[in-house]
Amino acid sequence: MTTTTTRVFCARLSGLVVFDPNGDQVGRVRDVVATLRLRGQPPRVLGLVVDVQRRRIFVPILRVRSFDASQVVLTTGTVSLRRFERRESETLVNAELIDRKVQVLATGTQVIVYDCAMEPTRTGDWQLTRVAVRSGGMRRRGHQQELRWDEVSGFAADETNQGTANLLAMYEDMRPADLANELHNLSDKRRFEVANALDDERLADVLEELPEDEQVEILDHLDNERAADVLEAMSPDDAADVLGEMQPANAARLLELMEPDEAEPVRRLLTYGDDTAGGLMTTEPIILLPNATVAEALAHVRNPDLSPALASQVYVCRPPTETPTGRYIGICHIQRLLREPPSALVAAVADTDLDPLGPQATLRQVTQHLATYNLTAVPIVDEGSHLLGAVTVDDVLDHLLPENWREDEEQLDG
Predict the structure, then answer these.
(1) What does each C-alpha distance from 255 to 168, 198, 258, 260 come to in angstroms?
(2) Predicted local confidence at residue 160, as pLDDT
């Protein structure tokens, strides 16, 4: 995500016009959604509340391409029109933090908040990092100053649920796989409390690392609207796997609640058997047109949200680039991309000799293909040579390991 500034003041966003990448107006910013944390840690910014045709919707912060003094531009023209409802763990910055009385820790002085600033982190997330305050009463301007978030007190998260809040503080910097292991060992009650407090993107990442029966339990615990939001944040293959484990009526209800463009690839994956290439594949590999350059390809593989297996190869196809694509041409391995001039076209450096597999290929055939050609992923195409997705080595490992491998190390040793 690119921004025209590295520090954005939330109160100044109110009323700004929101545009999609094509320049069409989506709506206007109403507020900023954040989640408070304990011990003075900067709150994580989750997204924006946007007024769209008399309806308030939520736009995740990762869907924002840029901020400036007159507008907000999104990375996509597709947004969920589901009505925004604030969750218990969320705070509306402009509505709930502006005009709040807080204390300057260094002097003990009581001041009034008149704005909060957010900044991007190195990982692409956003945090509230600065507080603009003034001394004096609500109607008096008084002395103004800008402080770091940890230099004031009075924003603390609700202490009535401090046990869960302390756990969340401990889990903040954990990798999703490690946090999944922690949740696995919690009681059902505490596991559900933590799941309720995590934002959709974080919970989706963690669910993808949990056994499918625990994924089902957590999603069943959430209200249907939230469960659909979390499924949308999961990769389509993981969402299809967990829906396949649910009662058919529950799965159908959640699919109906998902946005159509998010639900469509999941529905397609559900038509394949669990142990086939179609059932194993992800529908979101890196896909480029033949006239894309090596520089463009390398920019795509730098995306920190991609798994190493998906980032290791780029798939060259005729338009469209959404799966099912146009005719599949070949793959570009990252090692080859690093050796080529940035201006070279991917079509000229693509490996066209390796045959892709079909969606009905068995798990054994996929495993043999990966091992034979020392690949980290294999393209999956239909009878018309349209790319449907890719099966990565981590997807294969998930199906080769015992179901309870996370809790039974002795079984792995055997």
Answers:
(1) 29, 22, 5, 8
(2) 39
